[in-house]
Amino acid sequence: MPRWSSPWVLLGVLAVLAAAATLMLVEPPAPTSPVAVPAFGGQAGEADNQTRVDTTLYVVAGNVERILQAEVRDAPTSQRLADTVQALHAELVRQGVWPSGVPAPQVFVVNLGRDATVVLDVTPAGQPIPVEREQDLIASFERTLTEAGAAEVAYLQNGQATGRWLGNLAVNADLSGGTRTR
Question: How many Å separate Cα 62 from the centre of its chain?
Fold first, then answer.
């Protein structure tokens, strides 16, 4: 009897064939990319039959933190985080905390494995804002987003990594996905 026909060799060949068949049948995961969201809650004209979930917004003003509830779409984590940023921005504008003349930050959510990094890109106003107001804005975004599931928040200014988001305070501009100490 030839050696290749022994039960152990045949069992090994069958295991290799089963593994190859499994690899051919499994689809690779879809690639993830940054998500830009024009407004929270969906596109204009989009059907309003989407499920909504409550999210907690933390609005800091004058070292006083107010906790509010908002509804966002029940969507994958990256979309839900982007919607949460838009909901927080709308609330900051409504309460007069967001500086006039500064447009809403452009939102990108980068998924690195299980962790999501929210990147806020802003075009600052021509004049600087007070340090206290910038502290309030950063505290509002970081608390809201970490409670919503973001691993970290990074800041860009005019699409460039910067050490100062709105001009005064040092912020995280590292987009490498490493963890940072808060």
Answer: 26
Q: What is the pLDDT of residues 84-105, one digit of tens each?
A: 888 998 888 888 888 877 888 8
Helices (H), the chain: 7-25, 77-94, 131-147
What does the CA dihedral 131, 136, 138, 141 come to, rounded to 10 degrees?
Answer: -160
- pLDDT tens, position by position, 33-44: 333 333 345 554
Q: Which CATH architecture has domain 52-161?
A: 2-Layer Sandwich (3.30)
Extents of the domains making up the chain: 52-161
Query: If we measure between CA atoms, which residue out of 70, 57, 76 comes closest to residue 147?
Result: 57
Whole-prediction pTM value? 0.66
How far apart (Å, rounded) are the C-alpha atoms in residues 152 and 176? 11
